[in-house]
Amino acid sequence: MLTKLTMILAGTVVWTAAAQAQDYPETNIRFGHSVSQTSTSSLADDWAAKEIAKRSDGKVTFQMFWAGAAGSPAELFDLISTGALDAGALTPSWYAANLPFFAPLSSAPFSYPNSSAAIQIGNALLADIPALKEEADENKLHVMRFAQFNEYHMLCTQPLRTIEDFKGRKIRSQGDYFPIVLNTLGATPVTVLPGEFYESMQRGTIDCIILPYDFLVSNRLYEVAKYASEITFGPIVAHMSVMNLDKWNSLDPSVQKLITDVQKEAEAFDEEVTSAANDKSLATLKENGVEVLPFPEQDKLEEMMPDMLDVWSKMMADKGMGDEASSVVAKWKELR
User: Fold this and answer.
1) 143 and 74 together in one domain
2) How far apart are CA 60 and CA 27, in angstroms?
3) Closest-CA residue to 165 (of 8, 300, 15)
4) Which of 79, 93, 133, 233 could be stapled to 103 by a disulfide with Cβ–Cβ 3.0 to 4.6 Å?
5) Count: domains in the chain
6) pLDDT digits (tens, 9 = 90+) for 203-239
């Protein structure tokens, strides 16, 4: 059976032959990314950039700036929104003050049944709920694609097998919702920046970290902690690949269509490589002496948690945006 990735690559040959007849205007798009070119969440952006260049015979190019080369994560939103940078990968929850309707897509645990559903829900909300399109327009953003993230699991310096084992543990936290989860379980949430993961575990600043298996491997955390858990907090959206709206509107319609078509295919590419990275990384953890422990109390843990979409909706209501948030939650729950 052909995988989605195989079918995309096979179809590309036909697509490219047809596309060569199209005379695209010379176009360069500067794209900033906060992580490296080899990170799992970068692979589809890299593929899309190369595919667009190939299909346009080099006329339409994405100049990729990896690992913060165009600006730090804190700077990327303003750079793209103002047009100082043409495009980039934005994790919306990092900019919740500017993107409150997009923010839960990349931050709410237990909110998607699987990684591909996260992308489907993001696409449906953007298409069907006016508040998201309005928010994007207000911030001068055109959303090209939502990117996948694998499910969040745990890595600890000591075994974690039960809910009781959470009590008293110092666990790396993020955003508005993981602190709720950890406090409910009797753990202590600790804020640790991405560049500090390794040292924080090595020094005992944190006892556990919550990340997808592939991010545990890419940060080499198996060197400082040897107990992973099959516990899952679900996936989230990794980021949105966006373009400055004025830049998008200035593009020739043929270029807009080329980018839109390739970005749609990049979703399937993303699903394939993200799933493969999860399986490969789990094997890598085991090869490096990490014991992957079952977590038989998963259902019990989830029953203890509030619905994070309801938590977000209440937060939005407190800010005077309750009606729009209710529409988002109703659609989201319908789809998940």
Assistant:
1) yes
2) 5
3) 300
4) 93
5) 2
6) 999 999 999 999 999 999 999 999 999 999 999 999 9
